[in-house]
Amino acid sequence: MKNAFLFFISFAFCTAGLFSGCAKEISSEPRDAAKERANTVRIAKDAYVYGFPLVLAEISKRQMTNPLAGTDNVPVNQLRHNRLFADDKLKHFVKPSADVLYSLAWLDLAKEPMLLEIPDTGERYAFFTAVNSWGNIFASDGKRTAGTQRQKIAFTGPGWAGSLPDDFDERRSATNMVWLVGRVQVNGKQDAETAVRKIQDEIKLYPLSAYGKKYNAPKGRADETITVKPHLEQVITMNINDFFNIMNQLMINNPPYHADADIMDKMLDMGVAPGMRFDITTFDFDTQEAFKEIPKWFNGYMESLKNDGIDNGWVRQSGLGNYKTDYLARAKAAYFGTSANLGYDVIYMSSHIDSDGKKYDGSKKYILHFDKDNIPAVNAFWSVSVYDVSGFFVKNTLNRFSLGSRDKLKFNKDDSLDIYIQKDNPGKDRQSNWLASPDGGFYIILSSYWPKEIMLEGKWKTPNGKAEDREQRIDNR
Known about the structure:
This protein is of the alpha+beta class. It is built from 11 helices and 18 strands. It has helices at residues 2-15, 33-64, 143-146, 189-202, 231-236, 240-253, 261-268, 285-292, 294-304, 327-335, 453-456, and strands at 80-81, 100-108, 114-118, 126-132, 137-142, 151-156, 169-172, 177-185, 204-207, 315-317, 346-351, 365-370, 378-388, 403-404, 417-422, 434-436, 442-451, 471-473. The strands form 4 sheets. The chain has a 5-stranded antiparallel sheet with strand order 1-2-8-4-5. Strands 10-11-17-13-14 form a 5-stranded antiparallel sheet. Strands 7-6-3-9 form a 4-stranded mixed sheet. It is globular. It starts with a helix and ends with a strand. The model is unreliable at 1-30 (pLDDT under 50).
């Protein structure tokens, strides 16, 4: 009778919350303490993987919306434009792009919708993606989806109900916190300072309450207590108690999906749920010690996945933006910073090793070879970029930091294409196809914007190498 009563109380508590189906079988039989502890730690690890994108998004938002002097940070619900064409002098973020200029904003939709107006980009490739707090992309608007004419988008939160201006298309987010990432094609430094800047100046972002009115965005106030330490480092060095409690608070305004009911049920028993308070001291000493090691375990596990899925020496970023219940894939995308685009818009492929499986060495010469029937298949454009081991562009005499379909490339007689990657200029005959490498190690990124079906389906072959004297093939497997 006692067990039946406990079952009823447990079931009533669960069904009164956000999720159903979380009743558990109650048994008076003793359990093995070690197995119980191992199970608890396993659930905690699953919870950490599950919540990592949410906590990382919050820490990123705090840092990027803190308008400290000397930064280009802007408050929530305001656009931050990247104005500078990326070159070797750009050092304030890694893996910069010489293909696009970014316009970024963190949105808070709890109070009201935010309205975005995108100007006509004049056939120039551009798109805006909206990523919710869980790392899922719920909107992508631009040339691929609607052409280059003027667009008006309204972003609404999960609990909003009301009417929008007739000429705005609604994009409803499952969370109130949203990361908006806009990309506009840039064709060199002069283009960045003229045509692209004009487009960026015409992009508008404002709250629904300001529709039809003159709107001046608030300046915001800098918070000196917010660290400038990289957001990923902040999260993976955060103690587990703080991590789960930040996660609990964030889930109030950024609710889990209904499909997450199973993992939410498991996390509930350890005090991880919207609005709950997680207290590590309620667990025995050995469990507490195991909990404290979870961030370190997670970081090591993610690093072990860095080359997961390598093909012909290349790692392809695919299947991003809609993870459903694949929480590991979602966490991995957030960890490696690859969650802000759909494969339909752009596919990135990276290579860190040559045809012998050795890391790239700036003292050697390499050829990246594309057969004539294996040039990147895109609707917009493609490019290849070289970065040093720190993720920055390489200084060179041509001030060239990417090379691709928008350049005057020299093709071989059989219509194949070679790109020469080496430290020194290879000479007049090859200079048009040259990308500079640094003194030490480096890696290569191939970017394909608006890829065609053959690339989306994974049927496009990764580049193969062409061997020449004194030069290393990039891939020849």
